[in-house]
Amino acid sequence: MDNKEATLELGTKPIGKLLAQYAMPAMIAMTAASLYNIIDRVFIGQVVGPLAISGLAITFPFINLGAAFGAAVGIGASTAISVKLGQRDYATAQNILGNTVTLNLIVGISFSIVCLLFLDPILRFFGASDATIPYARSFMEVILAGNVISHMYFGMNALLRAASKPRQAMMATIFTVFMNIVLDIIFIWWWHWGIRGAAFATVISQALALCWQMKQFADQKALLHLKRGIYRLKKHLVENIISIGISPFLMNACACIVVIFINNQLVRYGGDLAVGAYGIANSIAMIFIMFVIGLNQGMQPIAGYNYGAQQTDRLMRVLKYAIIAATCIMVTAWLIAHLAPYYCARMFTTSPELIEQAIKALKINMMMYPVIGYQMVVTNFFQCIGKVKISIFLSLSRQLLFLIPLLLILPQFFGLNGVWASLPVSDITAAITAAIIMTIYMRRIRRQNVKEVKQ
């Protein structure tokens, strides 16, 4: 099957099979991506020590902020390409590909320069203490130096999925994970490079995968491929990419802001080990969040194509299946957090105090996860169909509108317990908000369908 046939099947193949075909590789790839971050933390926690885990947790806002800029370009471009393919506008899709490469280079290099110039003040603002800042600095110096590689790697993976190559995107991520594990063993275990070794392993593994990704897009026979004349930025294409990508950008930027608030409140009310406990809980949670993100990535080209092709019934069906799958994933996360929290925490550290705090963090952090899968899918759905304002609001609601006020208020009354309690309270509030907005939109769709039938 050539690329054009693979693209056309988005509007004809049964939705269930199509979602499995696109979502499974993306879910495997995203889960693998979270696994190599976990592997880094396991090596660091077991070999370097508990304070290194806390130092690594301080870098989460950096990772989220970098992901925010990457999502603004990568996810925005992949969604725009999917819509153009659904409209059979192959020339514009080709130009979006070239503009995406250029944007990733500009954003990746600019982000690195700015952050490296102000690294220590930024880390202090993120919640680093005298004990944890050396670890955080050592890690981020290497990560930021290779940031343009990370931007390009994640951006090209999103475009591979949009170009009907989900298996290639999965293979790129699995290769990155495998190489990261091998390099972690060499750099941390054998050569004793510590936390800096984990950073080198991440950047080098992504660089090798990026070379393979670029080779995939160098195939001149492919529907979308790299060629001369597509790299000069065009205002209307850049605006289209950014207008779609603004929602995932804000979601990741909010995650950055939220982690800053959480880290600072945890340091204030619980000390450095409380930050480490959150780092462990967040690492486990990210496995399941990445599953849902992968599901959303698999849903994105199907929803985007069928929205562009005005096939509303198929659009609603893929939404339904994605919500069911996401809910099952998050229920599994809830069960693991409540049935096996000790074993999750023990992977990262041998410190009894850190294990005890991590167990508590796991149980509370995932308390409302059974409803979060729904909220994530609905937010992504509105992004896929170009309802940018709704998607932005839902992206902001869980993290910015609800969680930050709770983080400021509850700890004043309940101390460290108030910091932890803020997480599940914001989760359930955001899920209810998403359900209300989705109900209103579904009623509008039904009324529109009734009018079309009468006509």
From TrEMBL:
Q: Which GO terms describe its biological process?
A: response to antibiotic
Q: Which UniProt keywords apply?
A: Antibiotic resistance, Cell membrane, Membrane, Transmembrane, Transmembrane helix, Transport
Q: Give any GO molecular function from the UniProt entry.
A: antiporter activity
Cellular component GO terms held in the UniProt record? plasma membrane
Q: Provide the membrane topology annotation.
A: Multi-pass membrane protein
**Where would you find the membrane-spanning parts of this chain?**
20-39, 51-75, 96-119, 139-160, 172-191, 197-217, 237-262, 274-297, 318-337, 367-385, 392-414, 420-441
The UniProt entry's sequence similarity note says: Belongs to the multi antimicrobial extrusion (MATE) (TC 2.A.66.1) family. MepA subfamily.
Official protein name in the record: Multidrug export protein MepA
Which source organism?
Prevotella histicola F0411
What broad taxonomic lineage does this protein's source fall under?
Answer: Bacteria, Pseudomonadati, Bacteroidota, Bacteroidia, Bacteroidales
